[in-house]
Specification:
The complex is a heterodimer of chains A (156) and B (419).
Chain A: H1 3-22, E1 32-42, H2 43-48, E2 55-57, H3 60-73, E3 79-85, E4 89-94, E5 97-110, E6 115-130, E7 133-143, E8 147-149
Parallel strand pairs in A: 1-7
Antiparallel strand pairs in A: 1-2, 3-5, 4-5, 5-6, 6-7
Chain B: E1 21-23, H1 30-41, E2 47-51, E3 60-66, E4 69-75, E5 81-85, E6 100-102, E7 106-107, E8 114-115, E9 121-123, E10 130-132, E11 135-137, E12 155-159, E13 162-166, H2 174-178, H3 180-189, E14 195-205, H4 210-215, H5 222-225, H6 227-231, E15 240-245, E16 252-257, H7 264-267, E17 298-303, E18 307-312, E19 315-323, E20 329-338, H8 343-352, H9 364-379, E21 384-386, H10 404-417
Antiparallel strand pairs in B: 1-21, 2-13, 3-4, 3-6, 4-5, 7-8, 8-9, 10-11, 12-13, 14-20, 15-16, 16-17, 17-18, 18-19, 19-20
Classes of the chains: A alpha+beta (156), B alpha+beta (419).
Fe (ii) ion binds next to loops of chain B.
Chain lengths: 156, 419
């Protein structure tokens, strides 16, 4: 793997985090290919082999449906979120396909409230090369913070 | 509110003799909370603890709670289920730290007292002292009897694969407790079929535990708060629906049926009633009617005090309410399916699970409204809520424009709490 490729991968991780922290929810599905997997799953289910996820989407179209829900239908307390993501570890490298993972921590800040540790976990990813650069074919967010502080509205 | 009424009242006062106006104080007072634990969670009532399918093999256990007391639900050698309190009989340590697992017995690490799967004390290190130079040093008193120092054992009842427990061994039978009317809806889901566990979701909601019972006894809000339901045509105010309540007023079922019989296509119709909005990926509501529904497309059953049984189209779960003081509770979702589900049906249940849970399209907002209600209650407990939709009385209805189920719960609450 050349530095150029690792740089592109690392850029993808960083841009993803910045995008979902920006509040421009429409940017989120664009990090994925059409036939994609996105899962937000408690570590307990992951490790015990239970298939249930807190959110499980199977296409970019479903991610767009989530965005619609976040913006138009889900009543919630407004909050900021801030992702801190580790440098990705590459597990498998092929010409147009990368398996990689990284640790993440998300802080939540409600208006006029202190910031709290909201959701911490690990991304387990499959990244593919497309004509528009690297995209996620699969992103699993396996979180340690199994006791969710009330709700999760925005994408992790 | 009269001028004399203090913001922080010492006594609970009701505006009316009925239960149509609920003092905020029922959600804010720590003494009332303790009394609730005594009267609803530790005495005279059954509490949900789990599903048999969570502990299929001898020695399998799950740590959970009844009220605020830690308990262990464990499968015994003969296949029966025991529920024992997670408090060591020696010096009281909450010894079991794993949330689930398989054990031949339970050992408290502090001084290694060991207990069988029934909770019987089996071993006490140095019980007979230590021999040195022909002399016995220490040990338990001569009259120490292990049988007097077992773990606290709860009474257990199972039905259709669901496990309930009670600290009160004189509690009535589970069937009498639930009552025939609501038992019919219980049995509709849990008719003896083998269950398969799909997994868990957990959330901590900063609100009084009763607010979650109310939420699922409140057919007024789904079409208004959960606009996703309405937007994608899954919910209409003219859906055929019924509210059923048991004789005590404590348990209830909200039953609704979408679309006319024989028009299954209508159930899966994802077109919007708002701006022609459609889902980008209609698989999110890929609903396929199942025989066992026997008509209704959704039945939400509340078993007082601590569990909600969910059937929302193809998604089925139990939701366990676990209080933590007056102002907070944990809400644990166990999604399941049936052993004879096809792979497609399992996928469908999992997909529809996106609607529910702490991030769900039509559930995340329930936790939010509970939190914001509690905020008001805590800041001014002298005020009261209003639950007068559909009148002030309590009873079954054949429509959803009513808060009768909430009134029923507080009628029962007032009686048991003697306030
Ligand atoms: S406290 Fe459990 S053995 Fe001593
Ligand atoms: Fe709701």
């Amino acid at each position: 793997m050349e530095f150029r490729d690792y740089y592109a991968l690392s850029q993808l991780y960083t841009e993803y985090a910045l995008a979902i922290d920006s509040g421009n929810w429409d940017d989120w599905p664009e990090f994925f290919i059409d036939e994609c997997i996105y899962r937000l799953q408690p570590r307990e289910n992951y490790e015990r082999g239970f298939p249930l996820a807190t959110l499980a989407f199977e296409s970019k179209a479903m991610l767009k449906d989530r965005v619609y829900g976040v913006r138009e239908t889900l009543f919630h307390d407004p909050y900021y979120q801030r992702h801190v993501v580790s440098a990705p570890a590459v597990r498998k490298w092929q010409k147009d396909r990368i398996e990689s993972e990284a640790n993440y921590a998300v802080f939540r800040t409600k208006l006029s409230e202190p910031s709290i540790v909201y959701n911490v976990g690990r991304y387990i990813d499959v990244v593919v090369r497309t004509s528009e650069g690297l995209k996620f074919a699969s992103r699993e967010c396996i979180y340690d913070t199994e006791m969710i502080p009330n709700s999760i509205i925005y994408p992790i | 509110m009269s001028d004399e009424q203090p913001i922080f009242p010492e006594e609970l006062t009701w505006e009316r003799p009925d239960s149509s106006r609920i003092p905020f104080m029922v959600y804010t007072d720590e003494e009332l909370h303790k009394k609730e634990l005594e009267r609803f969670f530790y005495r005279n009532h059954w509490n949900y603890v789990g599903l048999e399918a969570e502990i299929p093999n001898a020695g399998d256990f799950k740590r959970t709670v009844v009220g605020e007391r830690s308990v262990i639900m464990v499968r015994d050698d003969d296949g029966s289920i025991n529920v024992i309190e997670n408090v060591c009989a020696h010096r009281g340590m909450r010894f079991c730290r794993a949330r689930h697992g398989n054990r031949p017995d339970f050992v408290c690490p502090y001084h290694q007292w060991s207990y069988s799967r029934k909770g019987d004390l089996q071993g006490v290190p140095f019980r007979r002292g230590v021999k040195r130079d022909g002399k016995v040093e220490g040990g338990m008193p001569k009259d120490f009897k292990p049988a007097d120092h077992n773990l606290t054992k709860l009474k257990v009842a199972t039905r259709g694969g669901v496990v309930f427990a009670s600290f009160d061994h004189d509690v009535e039978s589970l069937e009498d407790y639930i009552g025939p009317k609501i038992l019919a809806y219980f049995d509709r889901i849990f008719d003896g079929r083998e269950l398969t566990i799909l997994g868990y979701n957990r959330q901590r909601i900063p609100g009084n535990w009763k607010l979650m019972q109310e939420n699922i006894k409140d057919p007024y809000h789904p079409g208004l708060l959960h606009t996703w339901f309405v937007t994608f045509g899954l919910w209409r105010a003219d859906n055929k629906s019924e509210m059923k309540i048991d004789d005590h007023g404590r348990h209830a079922a909200m039953i609704s049926t979408r679309g006319a019989a024989g028009k299954a296509g209508e159930v899966t119709d994802v077109s919007s009633f708002k701006d022609g909005m459609t889902l980008h990926d209609p698989r999110l509501v890929d609903i396929v009617p199942e025989d066992w529904w026997n008509g209704p497309t959704a039945v939400m059953t509340t078993i007082f005090p601590n569990v909600i049984l969910q059937q929302q189209v193809n998604s089925v779960s139990t939701r366990h309410i676990q209080p933590r003081g007056h102002g907070e509770f944990d809400f644990v979702w166990t999604h399941f399916g049936f052993a004879d589900d096809s792979a497609d049906m399992t996928r469908r249940r999992l997909r529809q699970a996106n609607l529910f849970g702490p991030a769900g399209f039509v559930s995340a907002d329930d936790g939010e409204v509970i939190e914001f209600s509690q905020e008001s209650f805590d800041s001014n407990p002298s005020h009261r809520t209003l639950v007068e939709l559909g009148g002030r009385e309590v009873g079954d209805t054949d429509h959803m424009v009513t808060e009768t189920l909430i009134r029923g719960m507080y009628r029962y609450w007032r009686k048991v709490m003697e306030v």
